[in-house]
Write a sequence for this structure.
């Protein structure tokens, strides 16, 4: 083979190899990272390039990650980790995923805050859904200096948060979360709701206090406005509310199965058997449905309520004490027959 032919052969081989390598690189860098449906990965401060790759492979074992790992390394991702929740979309290329991760283009998450009886329960529920731990959130949300600056205190903290579902970033800080919840609280208490509160002679805090009582009294949504109307009737007549949930709250600690006469003697401003009017603050966090039940209470003449003898969770309502006593006797008989003390 002449030198010229040999040179042409080598050149052709180099071209073929280069073309093959280019084709391989094109395949690697354009092959989708995700071969399945969209999925989410959650990145914490302790994560690294390797652990992020592992998270992707755990969500999609067939994922092509060679090019992604190269691009993340090339962009010094280990020195610039962005925490948060990220959605890896089906068919996303390595460059698209790299751009998302290195720019911190995270996906919002839905934070569902349920109505709970204590701050600790509330915080635990929140922490299960966010990056922040419960201790950090609780320490900040119960900080007396912060509460004071916001116009709240440890008793009225129940008024600060409206249980609902909100869209937030998974890595939201405790301070940013509080700011967001206050914004949502102000949004909830719009002009329409404020006007309704004024029309029944209650402040926003008083509405939420009454809502916390009726939420403890009944688990039946259709009964909430009826119970609210009953207590508003008692308030208007200057009658003690005599609400068992307030006594249970005043007792603190473990909740008794039944409220007995001895419990009614507890010395507390929350004991509505011994104190007229509403207690000084809510006895729990309350659902929006309970607040709206107070604002849209059912107008009737009921002054008394007693659990139904069929144990359905519903109540018998009465306008007179004699009617109420008859309802109470039926319920007591049902308890005795069921062997419940």
């Amino acid at each position: 083979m002449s030198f010229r032919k040999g040179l042409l052969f080598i050149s052709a081989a180099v071209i073929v190899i280069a073309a093959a390598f280019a084709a391989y690189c094109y395949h690697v860098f354009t092959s989708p990272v995700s071969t399945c449906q969209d999925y989410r990965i959650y990145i914490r401060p302790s994560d690294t390039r390797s652990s992020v790759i592992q998270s992707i492979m755990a969500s999609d074992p067939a994922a092509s990650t060679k090019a992604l790992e190269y691009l993340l390394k090339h962009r010094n991702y280990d020195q610039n980790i962005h925490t948060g929740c990220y959605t890896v979309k089906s068919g996303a290329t390595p460059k698209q995923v790299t751009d998302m991760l290195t720019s911190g283009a995270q996906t919002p998450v839905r934070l569902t805050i349920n109505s709970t009886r204590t701050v600790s329960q509330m915080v635990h529920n929140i922490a299960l859904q966010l990056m922040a731990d419960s201790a950090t959130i609780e320490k900040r949300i119960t900080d007396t200096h912060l509460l004071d600056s916001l116009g709240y205190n440890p008793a009225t903290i129940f008024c600060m948060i409206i249980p609902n579902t909100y869209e937030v970033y998974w890595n939201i800080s405790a301070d940013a979360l509080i700011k967001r919840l206050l914004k949502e609280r102000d949004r909830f208490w719009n002009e329409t709701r404020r006007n309704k509160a004024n029309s029944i002679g209650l402040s926003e805090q008083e509405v939420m206090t009454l809502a916390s009582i009726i939420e403890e009294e009944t688990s039946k949504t259709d009964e909430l406005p009826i119970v609210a109307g009953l207590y508003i009737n008692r308030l208007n007549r200057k009658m003690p509310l005599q609400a068992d949930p307030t006594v249970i709250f005043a007792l603190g600690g473990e909740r008794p199965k039944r409220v007995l006469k001895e419990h009614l003697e507890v010395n507390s401003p929350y004991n509505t058997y011994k104190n007229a009017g509403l207690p000084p603050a809510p006895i729990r966090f309350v659902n929006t449905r309970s607040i709206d039940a107070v604002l849209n209470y059912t107008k009737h003449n009921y002054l008394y309520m007693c659990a139904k003898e069929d144990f359905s969770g519903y109540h018998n309502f009465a306008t007179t004490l004699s009617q109420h006593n008859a309802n109470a006797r039926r319920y007591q008989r049902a308890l005795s027959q069921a062997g419940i003390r």
